[in-house]
Write a structure and sequence with these properties.
mainly beta, elongated, 64% strand, 6-stranded antiparallel β-barrel
């Protein structure tokens, strides 16, 4: 299971805007004999809103893996 934990806009050098979404895997933990289930955040991944994978280069720079295009996070 995954959950969305963040989304932000980033722009390429030619001015094209992209919506980047950060997802986090949810790890379910059931202790033996316990009726309670605990959930923990696991690994994270970045993707464009269309599902295309994105790599983080720095806090503000990212790379769209399918095209190799570098994009910069737009600060609010």
């Amino acid at each position: 299971m995954e959950r969305e934990i963040d989304r932000f806009y980033a722009v390429s050098k030619d001015g094209e805007s992209y919506l980047v979404v950060e997802h986090e895997k949810i790890i379910e933990f059931n202790a033996l004999g316990s009726p309670r289930t605990q959930y923990f955040g696991g690994s994270r991944r970045l993707a464009l809103v269309d599902g295309s994978p994105v790599n983080q280069i720095s806090n503000t720079e990212f790379e769209i893996l399918d095209s190799g295009e570098r994009i910069q996070k737009i600060e609010k």
